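Re: beginner question about structure tokens

> Can someone show what the tokenized structure looks like for a real chain? I only ever see the sequence side.

Sure, here's an example I had lying around. Input first:
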Amino acid sequence: MKRAVIDIGTNSLRLLVADMEKGVIMSGKKYVRMIRLGEMVDQSREIGEKALERCMDALDELVKIALDEGVENIKALATSAVRDAGNRDEIVRRIQASFPIEVDILSGDEEAEMGYFGILSSFPGQGLFIMFDIGGGSTEFAVGNKEKIFYKRSLDIGAVRMTEQFVKSDPVDLDESRRLKKHVRNTIESELGNISSFEKGIAVGIGGTITTLGAIKLKMENYNRGKIHLSRIGLDEIGEMISEFAECPLESRRNIIGLDSERADIIYAGSIILHEVMDFFGCKDIIVSDYDNLEGYLMTRCS
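And the corresponding structure tokens:
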């Protein structure tokens, strides 16, 4: 049976169309459109009309793809940008009035759960896992094993949110970089102090920042899920990429192989978040997962 779920995110709109049997995903295709729905939401606390128009145009395209694939019941999950917006009820009403989809606004904890269940759907390892999900508006953490989640948390540090707050210069100004790193580190240390006992788990990362860094490492001109999934990237490698991003003007950054040009303006902040998180947990490297909250949502709420 074919199922489809759409992630209405802060930076992107993503569709997963999957073949499922008895609640298990047998195969799937993903489609991504950059919409920057969370543009200035942190300041205005509302989703603007232009951002919503971009979202609606992309939804029109992706819903048609799902319907053409033979999916009858399309689900949608909304994350940081929508849940933080004061006009979220109006946004959901307009989306549901225009398209044959149901929109489920996830809390931060629910978003962490969906991401964790997503990695479990394809991950071969055993033992303790620590999941990091760096999104546009927030970063989620979850710790657990194959049986249960022991800890979950969502922090308001995301690639779009941190870029809007701290990155004003092109290329990145040194003082801006210091303030960004300090804010991210202080947020992590103050909010995640009670997670320290889980530091020895297998680190797995999901979200556009880490999959993009994986694609850059592999010099991937065209994104390949099979090659990205379960690849590894080291803390030192991320540090080297951060230095390259900082030195490059935005237009030069857009030409880096593996980096989507529409993500070029936020990759620096996203990479800083990932580097600080890994350093806090003592991770020398991290496993990249292309399976994420889309798979997790299908497995737990659409099967």
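Each token stands for a local structural state, so reading them left to right follows the chain. The CA atoms of residues 117 and 296 lie 5 Å apart.
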